[in-house]
Task: inverse folding
């Protein structure tokens, strides 16, 4: 990047950010950002993303979504075993739970509803 190297070269020649901005005809915020990046990293090149890559691929997510929709009462352990047999993805139940929750499927117990008898139904109708 020609601008970044020129930018840093000007900075090393004790020019101000405003002067560099005026010379190169780029915004002061851009000049400042490039100089800050160079000071912290020693380079202005694009850095690789930080963190561990995701374990579950998009293909695995679609299989997980299909499995959860088909049988929504399965817990994370059998789903993890199914993913291992079908896809070969070695995954812990915690990862399955996290991915499932990220898709919007949350494990909740159904609300218990009382059995309505003829006697209950007739008393409710009167109220």
Result:
């Amino acid at each position: 990047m020609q601008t970044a190297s020129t930018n840093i070269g000007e900075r090393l020649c004790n020019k101000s950010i405003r002067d560099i901005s005026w010379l190169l005809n780029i915004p002061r915020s851009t000049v400042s950002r490039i100089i800050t990046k160079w000071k912290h990293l020693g380079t202005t090149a694009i850095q690789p993303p930080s963190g561990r890559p995701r374990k579950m691929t998009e293909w695995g997510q679609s299989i997980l979504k299909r499995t959860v929709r088909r049988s929504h009462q399965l817990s994370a352990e059998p789903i993890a075993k199914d993913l291992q047999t079908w896809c070969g993805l070695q995954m812990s139940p915690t990862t399955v739970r996290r991915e499932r929750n990220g898709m919007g499927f949350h494990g909740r117990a159904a609300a218990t509803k009382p059995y309505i008898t003829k006697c209950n139904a007739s008393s409710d109708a009167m109220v």
Q: What stands out?
A: Residues 2-41 form one domain. The mean pLDDT is 81. The longest helix spans residues 28-41. The helical segments are 2-12, 17-24, 28-41, 58-70, 76-87, 93-102, 118-126.
